[in-house]
Specification:
The protein has 6 helices and 3 strands, in the order H-E-H-H-E-E-H-H-H. The protein has about 150 residues and is mostly helical.
Length: about 150
């Protein structure tokens, strides 16, 4: 059969309608993409930090790219010791900036405060790491001496 011999049917209205769930990911895909456990993602949902965009007909959580970005922000804030309230505040602030809601100057000022806090916490972590590396070096010296 040649390509010109095939009969084709026009797509139905259902087939032409955009799929509102296209591009959405189930929780397992999100876990794989972010490196977070399913349990952690569910806990962030319970705390209200990240709520899935929708659910499938079968009740499965469906996440958008924006939801995944929120999880990535949380993942990066956690080792810096930010509280859940601080995480929620920053997530809301970033959402408002992205969607051009609220007083832009005030939002940017608040974002600058988060930047300053994050930078200070990174500096403190570097100092702790240097201290820990020094301790590990001391133990190495003891091992070398006593072998």
């Amino acid at each position: 059969m040649s390509p010109t011999d095939r009969s084709t049917t026009a797509p139905t209205a259902e087939e032409r309608r955009p799929n509102p769930r296209a591009g959405l990911m189930q929780i397992g895909q999100v876990a794989e993409r972010t490196g977070l456990s399913l349990r952690t993602i569910r806990w962030y949902e319970e705390t209200g930090l990240v709520v899935p965009t929708t659910r499938s007909d079968g009740g499965f959580r469906l996440y958008s790219d924006e939801d995944v970005e929120r999880l990535e922000v949380i993942k990066r804030m956690k080792p810096l010791g930010f509280s859940l309230d601080e995480m929620q505040e920053l997530l809301n602030l970033l959402h408002d900036l992205t969607h051009e809601r609220g007083d832009r100057a005030a939002l940017i000022d608040r974002l600058a405060m988060f930047h300053q806090a994050a930078t200070a916490r990174v500096t403190a972590l570097r100092e702790q790491l240097a201290f820990a590396e020094g301790f590990a070096g001391t133990l190495t010296d003891h091992l070398d001496t006593h072998r």
